[in-house]
Design goal:
This protein is an alpha/beta fold. The protein folds into 2 domains: 103 residues, 3-Layer(aba) Sandwich (Rossmann fold); 256 residues, Vaccinia Virus protein VP39 (Rossmann fold, 3-Layer(aba) Sandwich), CATH 3.40.50. It is built from 17 helices and 17 strands. A 7-stranded mixed sheet has the order 9-8-7-14-15-17-16, with helices on both faces. α10 packs across α17. The protein is globular.
C-alpha cells in the first residue's frame, strides 16, 4: 500500500481558497447542517463573515443557525448577487450541478471547503491530526489492506487514507463507486440480493424512511416478494414521517416496522441530539431517547444489517453479536464517522471468527459514505438455498 506522506498537510482547507474568499463582498454557505456550522466557524476565524446559509430542505427555511438566517437557495442568490457560494455539504456534487443549472455563470463563484473528516466536523477541528494517527497505526492499516477481499477494496482503503493525509479530491475521484450504496452489485450477487429480499432487513439509522424506499425499489419490485424491513430511528421528527408513510400505505405490500430507538449495545436510555435531518448520541446535550439492541428483538432470519448511525456503529454491532452468529447476514456498515472506525469495525467482524469477507467501497467526492461490507463465508450456499425455498413455495 502506497501512502502519500510526502504530500500530507496539517491544513484541512487550502490557504489559497481562504484568500480568494476574502476578495468577495458577500459569502453564502450552502448547507445548514453540522458541516455548515463547521464552515461558518472556519470562515469567521479567518475574518470572513458569511451573510446567510442556504439549504434545500424546506424544514430549515426561515430558521436561524449560528446567528445566520437559513434561506432558500434562489432567494439567497437574489438577495446577494455575485456572492461567493461555499458548499458545506457532503452532497457537493449534486449541489454544484444545481447551482450551475440555475445559472452557469456562477460556476466560478463556487468554493468547496468541506474537506474535513466527519470527526473533525463534529469536534469543530480545523487542523488535521491524520499524519500522526495514520503513521502510528500504519502496521494495522497495512494488515487490513492485506486482509481485504478484493483489489477494489484495497484501492479504496489506499485512496481514503491518502485523502485523509492530503485533502486532495483526486484520491476520492479515483475510487468513487457509481454503484448503489448498501446494495452494491460489485459486491452482492443476484442470488445474494434475492436472499436478502426474502429475509429480514435491519435499517439502522432510517432517517425519514428513505432507505426503506430504496430497498423496496431495488430488491422489492418482484410481485412475489414482500420485504420485511425494521427501521431504527431515534429522531422524533423522522419517526413521525415514517409513521405517516406506514399509515398511508406508502410501503405496501411490504412490511415496514418502526423502532423508535437508537441502536446500541443494550436496551436502555441515552441522550440524543437531533434536529430532524441529522442526529447523534451526545452525553452533554439533547433529549433522552430509548436504546435497543438488535439481539433483544430475537429476529428469526436476518439477511442484511445496514448501519448509518453517526459513530454508534460499533455499539450496534456489539448488541447484534448473537444475531450475527445465528443468521450470518450481510453487513453494510458506515466506517467514516469516527477516526478509528476502519480498524475498530473490521476488528470486531474478524473477531467473530465466522469467516466474513471484508470489502470496502466509497461513494462520494467527500469524506462521507465509506461503507464496510461483511460478506458471510457461506453466503452463496445460504442465499441460493433461500432462493430455492422461495421458488418452491411460489412466493
Amino acid at each position: 500500500m502506497h501512502l502519500e506522506f510526502k504530500e500530507s498537510s496539517p491544513d484541512i482547507v487550502s490557504g489559497n481558497v481562504i484568500r480568494k474568499l476574502k476578495t468577495y463582498k458577500s459569502v453564502i454557505v450552502f448547507g445548514g447542517g453540522d458541516s455548515g456550522s463547521w464552515a461558518v466557524h472556519l470562515l469567521r476565524q479567518n475574518g470572513i463573515l458569511p451573510v446567510c446559509y442556504c439549504d434545500n430542505s424546506p424544514r430549515k427555511w426561515g430558521k436561524t443557525k449560528d446567528g445566520l438566517l437559513i434561506e432558500r437557495f434562489e432567494d439567497a442568490l437574489k438577495e446577494y448577487e455575485k456572492a461567493a457560494i461555499v458548499i458545506a455539504s457532503m452532497w457537493k456534487e449534486e449541489i454544484y450541478h444545481q447551482i450551475c443549472k440555475y445559472d452557469s455563470s456562477l460556476s466560478s463563484h463556487i468554493y468547496d471547503i468541506l474537506t474535513s473528516m466527519a470527526w473533525e466536523t463534529s469536534d469543530k477541528s480545523y487542523e488535521s491530526k491524520e499524519i500522526d494517527y495514520i503513521q502510528k497505526n500504519l502496521t494495522a492499516f497495512e494488515k487490513l489492506y492485506d486482509e481485504l477481499a478484493d483489489w477494489e477494496s484495497k484501492r479504496t482503503l489506499q485512496g481514503v487514507l491518502n485523502y485523509r493525509l492530503t485533502r486532495d479530491k483526486k484520491f476520492l475521484e479515483n475510487i468513487k463507486s457509481n454503484e448503489s450504496t448498501y446494495l452494491d452489485k460489485t459486491i452482492l450477487s443476484s442470488a445474494m440480493l434475492c436472499g436478502i429480499a426474502n429475509r429480514e432487513i435491519i435499517d439502522g439509522g432510517a432517517f425519514d424512511g428513505d432507505t426503506a424506499e430504496f430497498f423496496i425499489n431495488t430488491i422489492g419490485t418482484d410481485k412475489k416478494t414482500v420485504l420485511k424491513i425494521h427501521c431504527y430511528e431515534a429522531d422524533e421528527k423522522n419517526c413521525r414521517i415514517i409513521e405517516k408513510k406506514i399509515e398511508e400505505g406508502k410501503y405496501m405490500p411490504h412490511e415496514v416496522f418502526l423502532h423508535k430507538a437508537a441502536l446500541w449495545d443494550k436496551n436502555g436510555e441515552i441522550t440524543f441530539d437531533g434536529n430532524g435531518l441529522s442526529g447523534h448520541v451526545d452525553e452533554n446535550a439533547g433529549d433522552k431517547v430509548c436504546t435497543e439492541s438488535i439481539d433483544n428483538y430475537k429476529y428469526e432470519n436476518v439477511g442484511l444489517i445496514k448501519l448509518d448511525i453517526e459513530g454508534a456503529e460499533r455499539k450496534a454491532l456489539q448488541g447484534a453479536e448473537e444475531t450475527i452468529r445465528r443468521c450470518q447476514p450481510v453487513l453494510a456498515v458506515c466506517a467514516y464517522h469516527l477516526q478509528d472506525d476502519l480498524l475498530v469495525l473490521t476488528d470486531f467482524i474478524k473477531a467473530l471468527g465466522l469467516g466474513y469477507s471484508l470489502k470496502l467501497r466509497h461513494y462520494m467526492l467527500s469524506s462521507g459514505d465509506t461503507i464496510l461490507y461483511g460478506i458471510p463465508e457461506k453466503s452463496g450456499e445460504i442465499f441460493r438455498r433461500k432462493r430455492q425455498e422461495v421458488e418452491l413455495n411460489g412466493h
